[in-house]
Write a structure and sequence with these properties.
Length: 255
C-alpha cells in the first residue's frame, strides 16, 4: 500500500472564533471543509490508503471521511483515466498526545513508510506528492524527509536550516532561512529511535543525527492557523460553492 497519514486532531485554540467547539480542519473554505482540499491534493496515485488521526471533535472528521471521495482524473484524448478511490479510515487518539504522540498511538495502523501531512496546511499543488517524497527518502537513505520552503513563503519565522539534501537543524525557537512546509515522509521505525511527542524534539533529533532529508517546494503556503489566515485561504481557494451540511458551532464568514 501507499499510505497518507493526516493529522487532524488538534485543539486549534487560535481558531475558536471561527470554528467554535468544532475541529479546525473542518471549517468551511471555498464552500467545503478545508480538510477536503487537503485530501484532494494528496490522493494522487499510487496513494491507496488514507489514515486520518483525529482527536478533538473527532465525530465531524469521522462523518466527513465517510463522504469524501477522490476527484476523478480528467479525460485524456477522449479516454477516461483509471480511477479508484483510496480507502479512508479514521483513528481517534485516546487522549491529546501531540502530533508525534498521535503517530505513536496509531503505530499499529501505519505502513513501514508513509506520507504525513497536516489537516490545517494545504499541501503543495504537485501531482504525485507521495512519489516525490518517497524518491527523496530512498535516494538519500534518510529516516525521514521534510518538505521545506523559504521563510518568505510563510507568515511565521523560519525554523529549518539546510545544507545540500539535508536538514541540519530544526528549531522553532531560533530564526532560520527555511520553514517546515507541513509535509513529511517517514519510515515508521524512526518513531522508535527518536524521542518526543511534539515536532521539535522528534524532528530536531532526526536533524542532529543526520537522518532528516529535505525536499524543497518554494510556493506560497496556504493554512488556517488563525482567523486572518483562514480568510486568506478562503480568498486563495475561492470557487463555486459546494452544498454541505451545517457545521456545529459558530462560524464566521469571510469579509
Amino acid at each position: 500500500m501507499s499510505q497518507v497519514v493526516v493529522l487532524c486532531g488538534g485543539l486549534g485554540t487560535r481558531m475558536t472564533s471561527v470554528s467554535g467547539p468544532g475541529q479546525k480542519c473542518m471549517v468551511p473554505v471555498a464552500g467545503r471543509p478545508f480538510l477536503g482540499h487537503v485530501l484532494d491534493r494528496v490522493a494522487d496515485p499510487p496513494v491507496d490508503d488514507i489514515l486520518l488521526l483525529a482527536g478533538h471533535a473527532a465525530a465531524a472528521v469521522q462523518e466527513f471521511a465517510g463522504t469524501w471521495c477522490r476527484p476523478r482524473p480528467p479525460s485524456r484524448n477522449g479516454t477516461r483515466a483509471s480511477w479508484a478511490a483510496p480507502r479512508t479510515t479514521v483513528f481517534v487518539e485516546s487522549a491529546p498526545a501531540g502530533p508525534i504522540g498521535a503517530l505513536r498511538q496509531a503505530a499499529d495502523h501505519l505502513d513501514d513508510e508513509f506520507l504525513l501531512v497536516l489537516g490545517d496546511v494545504l499541501p503543495p499543488d504537485r501531482a504525485g506528492l507521495w512519489l516525490h517524497l518517497s524518491r527523496a527518502l530512498h535516494e538519500t537513505g534518510a529516516a525521514a524527509v521534510m518538505g521545506v520552503a523559504t521563510e518568505a513563503r510563510s507568515r511565521d519565522q523560519g525554523n529549518v536550516t539546510v545544507r545540500g539534501p539535508w536538514v541540519t537543524r530544526y528549531d522553532k525557537t531560533a530564526a532560520a532561512p527555511y520553514i517546515d512546509r507541513g509535509i513529511r515522509f517517514l519510515r515508521r521505525d524512526a518513531l522508535a529511535r527518536h524521542p518526543g511527542d511534539l515536532d521539535g524534539p522528534f524532528f530536531g533529533s532526526l536533524a542532529e543525527r543526520g537522518e532528516l532529508a529535505q525536499w524543497s517546494c518554494d510556493e506560497p503556503i496556504v493554512e488556517i492557523g488563525t482567523p486572518e489566515r483562514w480568510r486568506a485561504a478562503c480568498a486563495a481557494l475561492a470557487g463555486p460553492p459546494v452544498p454541505q451540511a451545517p457545521l456545529p458551532g459558530r462560524v464566521e464568514r469571510p469579509s
